[in-house]
Design goal:
Blueprint lengths: L1 H19 L19 E8 L2 E8 L7 E7 L10 H9 L3 E5 L16 H17 L2 E11 L1 H12 L3 E7 L5 H6 L4 E2 L3 H6 L9 H12 L5 H9 L6 H7 L2 E7 L7 H10 L4 E6 L9 H13 L11 E3 L11 E3 L8 E3 L4 E2 L6 E3 L18 E5 L7 E5 L2 E8 L4 E10 L5 E11 L8 E6 L3 E5 L4 E7 L5 E2 L7 E4 L5 E6 L1
Parallel strand pairs: 3-4, 3-5, 5-6, 6-8, 8-9, 9-10
Antiparallel strand pairs: 1-2, 2-4, 7-23, 10-11, 12-25, 13-15, 14-24, 15-22, 16-21, 17-20, 17-24, 17-25, 18-19, 18-22
Length: 491
């Protein structure tokens, strides 16, 4: 653990030295104006001395038009949202896309969706309403990834926002960074913020990067930092403002678990829709969903999202192009619990020697020289439709007071091909070495169709490239097969 902490600390130190030497140069056009037929590249002054690069896409006709403001994502290219913005403008929307502070082309320092970034979104709305023929009663926010988080936060503060489309964003930054008691290595926000030249972090973000590198558990200051930037903290205010909210995600996203997103969605008390699709992050969340959402809630057009049940899910384990499924709630997808018998493949009480591992997307569930424990089910004579959150229980005897388990569930075909179904980390601390304890935790929610004749394989390891494990060097984790079981939600 000391080696891991030292490596993380060294990375953050190098980043901070790099960013402190960077000049906050911003290319700002001399004039600020909107034109028909855009996009027009311009700059918007949101605070004294702080200008944000913006692109204005203007529709034909005199207006008034509905307005869509688009905070840009990162580290995607600047033009990532241009196709969607162009389609919205062609459909009759005034569209203003902008790059948040600290991103290339904009002034100020990167606040990781902090209070200044939220205030900037409102300032851009005000700028657009003053300089375009936009209708102040029909304002939407559209964001992907980083822009999605800013959009949800800004809608919680600004009553003028009547619709939000958040593609691939987050709702709970603390859960995304420390869920399961385990730090993430690959959270896109922190990964991009720690890359030299990507952004210019403000002092608060720099402190958070340092704390994250040095502490396996979140400090009180880090908790405060994360909560301020988490839409779930401001949910009551969002419900009071009652904008229509679209959340779109993919099953393999590393920003946050669908478990937390589902809880947030269940607590929304407004017009809402949740989509989960295949592949990673926001790459497959279709802009068409956002465009249909705005057409319904900003233009009053019938049909589309809002007339269907509010949860749309694409099942994994099916061929591309298979139609998705609609439900009233993410937790209404299962109708029963299936508890399959598990056959131990690495002995009744396998001992995991913590060490390097190939990660959750390994091609096959292999115990690999004592670095993993393996159980599997008998081949299932009928197909199983897994829908919801699998729960794992086991008994652990650790050799050290703290440690990490990573559980992975695979679809194991008769040919031996393995496909990851879901996974989750679990970390513990302050345990008595050599004394067993019960560990029960949820895996990440999934929608997966297991074909007839396939097995489920459960692999438990002590390390994973996605996570910062808490196992000391040379530590072991003994698992007890008799106390290990899975509860699978099925439909």
């Amino acid at each position: 653990m000391r080696a891991v902490r030292s490596a993380l600390a060294a990375l953050v130190a190098a980043v901070l030295l790099t960013v402190s030497a960077m000049a906050p140069a911003v290319a700002a056009p001399a004039a600020v104006r909107a034109v028909r037929g855009g996009p027009e590249v311009t700059a918007i002054e949101v605070a004294p001395g702080v200008r944000l690069r913006a692109e204005v896409h203007a529709p034909a006709g005199p207006g008034p038009h509905p307005l869509v403001v688009m905070p840009a994502p990162f580290p995607y290219p600047a033009a990532h949202q241009d196709p969607a913005a162009g389609r919205l403008a062609a459909a009759g929307y005034d569209v203003v896309g902008y790059r948040p502070r600290g991103l290339p082309g904009s002034g100020g320092a990167f606040g990781m969706a902090g209070p200044r970034d939220v205030a900037d979104a409102s300032a851009v709305i005000s700028w657009a309403l003053a300089r375009t023929p936009a209708d102040a009663r029909r304002v939407g926010l559209y964001g992907t990834a980083y822009g999605a988080g800013i959009g949800l936060l800004a809608a919680s503060e600004d009553r003028r926002v009547r619709a939000v489309a958040a593609l691939g964003g987050w709702v709970d930054l603390l859960d995304g960074l420390y869920g399961g008691g385990t730090r993430r290595r690959a959270h896109p926000l922190f990964r991009a913020a720690a890359r030299p030249g990507a952004v210019r972090p403000d002092p608060e973000v720099r402190r958070a990067l340092r704390e994250y590198a040095e502490h396996p558990d979140p400090t009180p200051a880090f908790r405060s930092f994360a909560r301020a930037r988490s839409p779930i903290t401001h949910l009551d205010r969002l419900n009071a403002h009652a904008p229509a909210v679209l959340l779109a995600h993919t099953w393999s996203a590393t920003v946050e678990s669908p478990n937390r997103n589902g809880r947030y969605f269940s607590r929304l008390r407004t017009a809402k829709r949740l989509e989960y699709r295949r592949d990673d992050h926001a790459t497959e969340a279709p802009p068409a969903s956002a465009e249909r959402w705005f057409d319904r809630h900003l233009r009053g057009r019938p049909g589309g999202p809002g007339t269907e049940p509010p949860v749309f899910l694409e099942a994994r384990g099916r061929p591309p192009g298979h139609p998705g499924e609609h439900y009233d709630d993410l937790w209404a997808t299962a109708s029963a619990n299936h508890v399959p018998p598990l056959e131990p493949r690495t002995g009744p009480d396998p001992v995991i020697h913590t060490g390097p591992d190939r990660g959750p997307h390994a091609d096959a569930p292999s115990p690999g020289h004592g670095t993993a424990a393996l159980w599997w089910t008998s081949p299932d004579p009928r197909p199983r439709r897994l829908r919801g959150i699998p729960a794992l229980r086991t008994r652990v005897t650790p050799s050290a007071a703290e440690g990490t388990l990573v559980a992975r569930l695979y679809d194991l075909a008769p040919t031996g091909t393995a496909t990851l179904v879901t996974h989750a980390p679990y970390s513990f601390a302050h345990r008595a070495p050599g004394t067993p304890f019960e560990a029960s935790f949820d895996l990440f929610a999934t929608v997966y169709d297991l074909p007839a004749g396939h097995r489920l394989a459960l692999v438990v390891t002590g390390t994973d490239p996605l996570y910062v494990a808490r196992n000391p060097p040379g530590a072991t984790l003994a698992l007890h097969s008799a106390a290990t079981g899975l509860a699978l939600p099925v439909r």
